[in-house]
Every structure is written in C-alpha cells, then in structure tokens.
Amino acid sequence: VTAPLVAMGAGAFAVAMDFDDAMRQVQAVTGETGTKFTELREAALQMGADTAFSSSQAADAMLQLGQAGFTADEIMISTADVLSLASAGALDLGTAAGITANAMNGFGMSAGDTAQIVDVLAKGASISTTSVEGLGNGLSYVAPVAHAMGMSLEETVSILASLSNAGIEGERAGTALRGAISRLAAPSNEAAKALANYGLSLEDVNPATHTFTQILDTLSAAGITSADVMQIFGQEAGPGVLALLGQGTGAIKEQTLALQNSKDAAQQMAETMEGGVGGAWRQFTGSVETLAIVLGDLVAKGLTPVIEFLTRLFNVISGLPEPVMLVVVAVGALAAAIGPVLTVAGILISSVGAITTALGAAGLGGALTTVVGI
Fold first, then answer.
1. What mean pLDDT is reported for the chain?
2. Would you give the DSSP letter of residue 89?
3. CA–CA dist 358, 365 (Å, integer)
4. pLDDT digits (tens, 9 = 90+) for 32-74
5. What pTM was estimated for this model as a whole?
6. How far is residue 244's CA from residue 160's CA, in Å, rounded to a whole number?
7. Quick one: which of 65, 117, 67, 111 has its CA closest to 88?
8. What are the CA-CA distances from residue 277 to residues 30, 187, 280 (Å)?
9. CA angle 230, 235, 240 (to 5 degrees)
10. Which of 189, 171, 185 is CA-nearest to residue 236?
C-alpha cells in the first residue's frame, strides 16, 4: 500500500508544482495579487474540472492574454470564449488566446468584444478552405492597417477567407491584403496613370473613404486588365487582387453578412467538437489533473517547510571551511566502508551458527567446537 500512495503523492506534487509555476507567470505578467490572483487561480482550476482543457492549459491561455495587456477581470471575461475558439478550431488554448488577443489589439477592440472575435473567426473558418489558425496568421499581418483604413473585422476576415479559397492562405493572404491596402493608401504616379486610363481618380479607390469591397467593385466595373492590376498593386499584392476580382465581390459580400450574423458560432462549434467520446475523455483527464493539483497543494503545504529547512542546512554545509569539509568526507567514506563490512560479518556469523546447529544435529558439534575453539 505504501509504495503506490507515495507514488501518487509525488505525482500530485509534481502536477501541482507545474500549475503553480504557470499561475505565478500569470501573476508576474498581470501584477495581480491577493484576491484577484486567487480568483484567477480558482477560475483556471474550475475550467480544468468543467471543460475539455486542463487547468495548466487554462493557465497558459491566461498568460497569453496577460501578455497582451489584459487585466485580471478582462482575462476572466475572455478566457471562456477563448476555450470555445480553441475547441472549434482544434487549437491549443495558448494559440487560441494569442490569435484572439492579436485580433483584438489590431482592431482596437476591448475584452468585451472577445465573443464577437471568436465567433467571426470560427465562422470564417467554417465557410472557407482555411482554418482558425490560418485566419489568425493573416490577421496578424493586416489587422492594424485594415483598422486604420476603417475596415471591419468581418470584411477583413471575409477577404482573407476568399483569398484562401484561391490558394493564398495564412501569412501570404495577410501580406497580400496589407500590400493592396498600402498601395491604395499611398498610390504611385504609375498607379494614378493606370487608373486614369479607365476614367478613375485616386479618390475613387481611396481605402479611407471606401470599403475594400467597394474598391473591388469599382475596378471590376471599369474592366481593368490584369496588367494594370499588377501596375497598381505590384508583384506582392497584385496576384491577390486578381484572385479576388476573379471570384467577384458577391462571395465576399455574402461571407461578410454571414460573419456579421455569427453570434454564438464558436460555442456551437465547440459543443459539436466536444460532444463525442474524445471530448468526454479530454474532460475526464482535465478533471483528473484538477484533483491532482488539489491533492498536490496539500502535499506541498507539508513538504515546503521541510524543503526550506533542508535548503538552509545544505547551504550551511556548503559554506563550511575546507578542512571541516574534508573531515565530513572522511567520516562519510568510513561510514560507507563500515556498512558492507558489518553486513558481511553478520552473514558470516549467521552462517557459522547455522552450520554448527546442523553438525550438532549430526553428532559432530563437539568436534567442530574443539577445532575452532568456539
């Protein structure tokens, strides 16, 4: 019984120690102490017990949000939504939190908008050939520029989804859209001349006063050629714009409308993803980890004073003068040598006793005693 119990205690202590380290990282990043930090810790434990993610994964998500500048209250508001996005997109919690935070900061949104962000990303992945992570990577490149030009999150995600449908995904999609917006925001003389050939002015394609979808409509209606598209948008963004023009803006508008009406999409997708045996197993393992942390915390309360005492003791021994240390080593070596000698002697004495007993039974005990003098 003892060995399994000791093993369980050691395992629980290790899990609790890892979780404590993770939460202390959250504390260091957010600067929260006292009641607020306790609330964060308890929230992470509760998520580990109630969801398909472990408490340690919840702590990792909190760390990502904290690094993005979220307060403790904002983290607690946002983490549940991030859990839904992670399940819907088959992501680890840290990645889902990073994607959410980047989108939020890029579009100047707040923690109260977390649900909108995760719903748009989850829906965007479901209506295109890309993934939540692919959309997140694209947004990390284009979000600040798109926001500066007045583009909405929904339109931006819709265009990234359309680019992915044309085979331009992730970072490449974000880079292409960013380049296209930048080219229109600061057009070259060659771009102005190319537009003039179609009776268009720079104001007709100004991203500060027109949505990007409207600009695509304007260029399409003018019958712009591929060569002039490349002249206006350059080698980096030109292929992406050509791909969007080839698909037409109807799909972009339809997707944008769907994203504007995507409320609760992430939660619904998460429930579907976690509704089977895999989700049940993940929730079970999360509950096991939570129990291990709770038990490990109890073990830690008893072990911590012992560990601290031994640490001080070993530090004192380490600081002893060299002559004293030599004596300690010599005594230790002598003790190490004496142990085996005593063991062998004990075995020998026991063996002689056993032999004497056996010979005595055979009537030869007296003869042996006379020979050996025992």
1. 80
2. T
3. 8
4. 778 888 888 888 888 877 777 788 888 888 888 888 778 888 8
5. 0.69
6. 10
7. 117
8. 36, 55, 5
9. 75
10. 171
